[in-house]
Fold this sequence. Notes:
Elements: H1 2-54, E1 76-92, H2 98-101, E2 103-118, E3 127-130, E4 133-137, E5 142-148, E6 154-160, H3 170-188, H4 191-209, E7 215-218
Amino acid sequence: MKKNILPFLLLVIVGIAAYFVVQSVQESATQAQQALAPLSEANSSMQTQVADLLHPTPTIIPDPITIIHEVRSLARLETIQYSIEKVITAEIGQGTFDFLFGDRLLFVAHGIVIAGIDMEKLGPENMQLENGALYVTLPPAEVFIATLDNEKSYVYDRDTGVLSQGDTNLETTARQAAEAEIYKAALEDGILDLAQQNAEHFLEKFFAALGYENVIFLN
């Protein structure tokens, strides 16, 4: 009987010893993790600081002082709007050594052009009533706004030479050229003629509502 009990006791003792060894190892691992936690947090914080240093978020601080140079009343009749997309290539230092000193970018410009007539230029001398007909001489159509949509415009690609720091004014130059090209494209497409026609159609209905059913526009 004693011989049968002895192996059983040995198994129990070994099992208890193994249990305490496992517990000891787990406690040691937990303590090690707790000890390394500050180091891990410090490392994570350092990585965040390095990322902020390499890719800083710009801080915009507007000057609290606003200067208004001029206030004008306007009487513009806007009769047409163009939405135009234009791709602009701006480059500097191109040539044999462009891979060293060159700077080149592709700018995708989205802009709007608004045209119409300035009603301030329409006076009594421009309207004559003869034989039941109203003769009207409208001022010539003009472009009121030709500007970029900054939310849609963007730099698609930029290639800077190995030794080049990049021209800080290159994107500004591209934007200025884009505005000029958008304005030019609208003119070439006949925006002023369409603006004049739309103005005549609108004012014809306006004068008809006032009782002038026969309206003739003079060039």
